[in-house]
């Protein structure tokens, strides 16, 4: 079953409501650094390419990219996460502030580095290697208490709550429980999950696994719409959430909740890089729901947003006008 298309006027009306909508994002913030160069030979020292440096650029990643996407679409976003006392943490704060993201929710943990992924890529956007700077042990003690306190302080006025879980330590059961408490006050809770934390997400409004994560969680193969439907129903039960949206790459999405389920066909015209596409999906979902969209309407709008950013290199954002123009 394919969900009906969204009326263009309705879609543009919802997108026009995005500016100023308050969204709280909690999760694993990170920096994505790209070192770009030209490869013309193999090293005589080892069978690896020699990359002749050309340029370097830095992007916001993880939960920070989710927040950046919300800000780029006009939302008023507060971000909660953990950074180290280091240069990468300072750079992360600077970039977030420059994009209009509130950084009062960032907690400094001197015992860990700011999560940073350094990718070495060719001028044709082919990845040669990746170096990760991180400590992915769960936060605890005073750092965890500070995060919970910031959730209570910054999340009180949010229309939607969003968790971006990358298994880097900033998402724990007490932190999810604090968000579920806020959800009880009326703000939907969206989770971009990692399967080892599946049991922590009980009570969420919507969980958004990709098809590999859905397969892992349900022990089901997903190749067809029928298989997606059964896996989504199973995932909802296992995660104890209200709804699930499985992102399936070139096969689009599958939405399942108590009132509606069905496929949403992919709309990407050109795929350059899927890095960060899931961040764009949850950011757009959050704003669409905050704007008054139904779950199905929000999923369709998010699908259109994903179709734009996969045509761009690295973690990317889009504008409201670009999104509205796809309808």
Q: Could you characterize the architecture of this molecule?
A:
Helix 4 packs parallel to helix 5. The two termini are 21 Å apart. With 327 residues, this protein is α/β, with parallel strands linked by helices. It has one domain: Ribokinase (UDP-N-acetylmuramoyl-L-alanine:D-glutamate ligase). The strands form two sheets. It has a nine-stranded mixed β-sheet, with helices on both faces. The mean pLDDT is 91. It is built from ten helices and 13 strands. The radius of gyration is 19 Å and the shape is globular.
What's the short version?
The chain is an alpha/beta fold and about 325 residues long. The chain is built from ten helices and 13 strands.
According to CATH, the fold-level topology is UDP-N-acetylmuramoyl-L-alanine:D-glutamate ligase
CATH superfamily: Ribokinase
Which CATH architecture is right? Answer: 3-Layer(aba) Sandwich
If strands are numbered along the chain, what order do they take across the biggest sheet? 5-4-1-8-9-10-11-12-13
Order of helices and strands: HEEEHEHEEEHEHEEHHEEEHHH
Backbone structural class: alpha/beta
* Unreliable parts: none
Which bin fits the share of residues in helices?
25-40%
How many separate domains?
Answer: 1
Please tell me what the overall shape is.
globular
What percentage of the residues does DSSP assign to strands (E)?
25-35%
From the N-terminal CA to the C-terminal CA, the straight-line distance is 21 Å
Number of helices: 10
CATH class, named Alpha Beta
Number of strands: 13
Average pLDDT, all residues: 91
Cα-based radius of gyration, to the nearest Å: 19 Å
Q: Characterize the biggest β-sheet.
A: 9 strands, mixed
């Amino acid at each position: 079953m394919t969900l009906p298309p969204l009326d263009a006027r309705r879609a543009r009306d919802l997108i026009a409501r995005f500016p100023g909508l308050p969204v709280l994002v909690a999760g694993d913030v990170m920096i994505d650094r790209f070192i770009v160069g030209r490869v013309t030979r193999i090293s005589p020292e080892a069978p690896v390419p020699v990359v002749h440096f050309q340029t370097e650029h830095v992007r916001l990643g993880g939960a920070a990219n989710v927040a950046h996407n919300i800000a780029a679409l006009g939302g008023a976003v507060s971000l909660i996460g953990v950074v180290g006392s280091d240069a990468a943490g300072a750079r992360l704060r600077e970039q977030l502030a420059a994009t209009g993201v509130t950084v009062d929710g960032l907690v400094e943990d001197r015992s860990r580095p700011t999560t940073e992924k350094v990718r070495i890529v060719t001028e044709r956007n082919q990845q040669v290697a990746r170096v990760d700077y991180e400590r992915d042990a769960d936060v605890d003690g005073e750092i965890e208490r500070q995060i919970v306190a910031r959730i209570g302080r910054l999340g009180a006025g949010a229309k939607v709550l969003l968790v971006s879980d990358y298994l880097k330590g900033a998402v724990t059961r007490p932190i999810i429980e604090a968000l579920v408490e806020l959800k009880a006050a009326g703000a939907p809770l969206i989770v971009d999950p990692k399967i080892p934390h599946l049991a922590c997400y009980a009570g969420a409004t919507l969980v958004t696994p990709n098809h590999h994560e859905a397969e892992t969680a349900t022990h089901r193969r997903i190749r067809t719409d029928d298989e997606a439907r059964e896996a989504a129903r199973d995932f909802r039960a296992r995660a104890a959430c209200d709804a699930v949206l499985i992102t399936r790459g070139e096969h689009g999405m599958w939405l399942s909740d108590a009132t509606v389920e069905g496929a949403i066909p992919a709309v990407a015209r050109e795929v350059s890089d899927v890095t960060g596409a899931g961040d764009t999906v949850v950011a757009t979902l959050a704003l669409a729901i905050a704007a008054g969209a139904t779950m199905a309407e929000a999923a369709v709008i998010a699908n259109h947003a994903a179709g734009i950013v996969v045509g761009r290199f690295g973690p990317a954002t889009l504008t409201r006008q670009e999104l509205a123009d796809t309808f």
